[in-house]
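User: Second chain of the day. Same drill as before.
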Amino acid sequence: MDRGKSAVPRVILPLSVEESTRQRDLLQYSSVVESRKWNPSLEQKRILESMWASGTRKPPCEAHIDEITSHLQRYGKAEAKNVYYWFRNEGTREKRRKQQSEATSM
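Assistant: Same format as last time:
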């Protein structure tokens, strides 16, 4: 049984120009909404990786993090916490890569 709902098919009416423009704008806005995760630009990533390769291994002191952050901000959005966590996570990524390469060489 249909429990009180009518069997009349739902009619979809075309949207007015104003309504379709509003919906298009909402779709564009929703696809532009920033994610919460920081994704460094290619230049920012290159800078961080070169610092890592030159020996900066653990998260630097706060003053150094602020200096790195201000440098990275020339190339896009960056915050001090992003720099701190990037260095911390890079150590973990390096350990994982090393373990994977050792496992595949056995």
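Residues 80-105 form the longest helix (26 residues).

User: Great, on to the next one.
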